[in-house]
Design a protein that fits this description.
single chain, mainly beta, Phage tail proteins - horseshoe like beta roll fold, about 10% helix, elongated
Length: about 210
């Protein structure tokens, strides 16, 4: 599969001596955090990224030939036990998370530009308690997982008004269940509505079928 890599990053990846880095952007209730796998702070993409060094890790970012939702796990260790409640309280399911893979040069500067290898949403975090410190594993799901969720929508007049408040294309759907006429000739009418005289309909155009 072709990658949209910059020429500078392609050249760096082709070298025998490589200094790869990972950058993670995650949204919490108190704001968005920007961390990277090195030490100290670096600037990239208009943000200051804080280094977590070996206190942070990320699972393998897998690819498949089929359309399926494969998530990752972002782990942060060395968190003081007193702060664990605050960390968990700021995690929100479905908050966005992005991960980039990049490299730094001999001076420690980020080579333009890191490649985004994953984008998804937060799931339920897990805690691994130790003595004085703890670790939090944040499960991040691929957005494709949303395809497996049921859609609670109905072909009704009320549901249609959610997206199109003035549309009347489904106005007689409920009353049609009690209609005793026949298409093509005068019927006894639709309860609460008009009568049918032919196969056409006087209902407005339904925007769902545009």
């Amino acid at each position: 599969m072709s990658r949209n890599l910059t020429s500078a990053l392609q050249a760096e990846l082709a070298k025998q001596a490589l200094a790869p880095i990972v950058l993670v952007q995650a949204q919490f209730t108190s704001g968005t955090i920007y961390v990277w796998s090195g030490v100290g702070s670096v600037s990239w993409n208009g943000q200051t990224w804080l280094g977590v060094g070996n206190l942070g890790s990320i699972s393998t970012v897998a690819e498949a030939t089929e359309v399926e939702a494969q998530g990752i796990v972002v782990k942060l260790s060395g968190i003081p036990a007193a702060l664990i409640a605050q960390v968990l309280g700021e995690c929100r399911i479905n908050a966005p998370v992005k991960v980039w893979l990049g490299a730094v040069d001999s001076a420690g500067a980020i080579i333009a530009d890191p490649y985004q290898v994953f984008g998804g949403v937060m799931d339920v975090p897990e805690i691994d308690e130790g003595g004085d410190t703890c670790s939090v594993s944040l499960h991040v799901e691929n957005r494709l997982i949303d395809l497996g969720r049921a859609r609670e929508r109905r072909w009704t007049h009320e549901d249609q008004k959610i997206d199109w408040p003035t549309d009347r294309g489904f106005e007689y759907v409920a009353s049609l269940q009690e209609w005793d006429g026949q298409w093509g000739k005068q019927g006894s009418g639709i309860p609460g509505g008009g009568t049918s005289s032919g196969g056409g309909s006087n209902a407005p155009h339904n925007p769902r079928y545009r």
